[in-house]
Amino acid sequence: MGKIYDRIDDRLRTFIQAQPVYFVATAPERGGHVNLSPKGYPDTFAVVDDTTVAYLDLDGSGVETISHIRQNGRITVMFCAFSGPPKILRLYGTGRVVVPDDPGFQDLIKLFGSHPGVRSIIVVDCERIADSCGYAVPFMSFDQERTLLDEWAGRKDTQARRAYRAKKNRESIDGIPGLSADETDPVGQHS
């Protein structure tokens, strides 16, 4: 039924690249709200090496993933097949938040397509790579990407992005610190 892998091999890379959506789950250290976020845009996810993945963290109304990762590092990324053979792939690991001023950001950003509103890059060191059947996951067809997030972020100037991040991204819904005042500044970000 399910299998555990010691690395992300070419077959798993191909599966990951074929999925139009993936899901990211994190949780606070104690209590609080578990967060589960769907992610789109195929050029926002990259397999860095056999046990490391990364994705672009774009502007949004919450900052749960950043807050939880900074608090305890725990993260799971899940892909599931909505077409073709049934399969669910989970990447369990320890995440780190890389913001534009951090060393390594400029090298990592080259792995992704261009998007306005990049807050950070989430890098995940995979500790467990496992699949399961996905027999109950429905077949669904993919029509097209929604462009609304990029369009929304593209309409905001630097001051508007800074104000939005300061209002919405300074702490999680449970009051866990998110982006610092310096990190809400989009100057120099990938767009």
Gyration radius, rounded: 17 Å
- What are the segments in which pLDDT stays under 50 over at least 5 consecutive residues? 187-191
Strand percentage lies at 25-35%
Largest sheet: 8 strands, antiparallel
Q: So what's the overall shape?
A: globular
Q: What's the number of helices? A: 5
Mean pLDDT: 93
Number-wise, the strands total 8
- The SSE string, one letter per element, is EHEEEEHEEHEHH
Please summarize what this structure is:
With about 190 residues, the protein is of the alpha+beta class.
Core attributes:
single chain; alpha+beta; 8-stranded antiparallel sheet; 8 strands; 30% strand; globular; disordered C terminus
Could you characterize what this model shows?
- The chain has five helices and eight strands.
- A hairpin with a 7-residue loop joins strand 6 and strand 7.
- The longest helix is centred in the last third of the chain and has 11 residues.
- Helix content is 21%, strand content 30%.
- It is of the alpha+beta class.
How is this fold's topology laid out?
Blueprint lengths: L2 E3 L4 H9 L3 E5 L8 E5 L5 E5 L2 E7 L5 H9 L1 E7 L7 E11 L6 H5 L8 E15 L15 H7 L3 H11 L23
Antiparallel strand pairs: 1-8, 2-3, 2-6, 4-5, 5-8, 6-7, 7-8
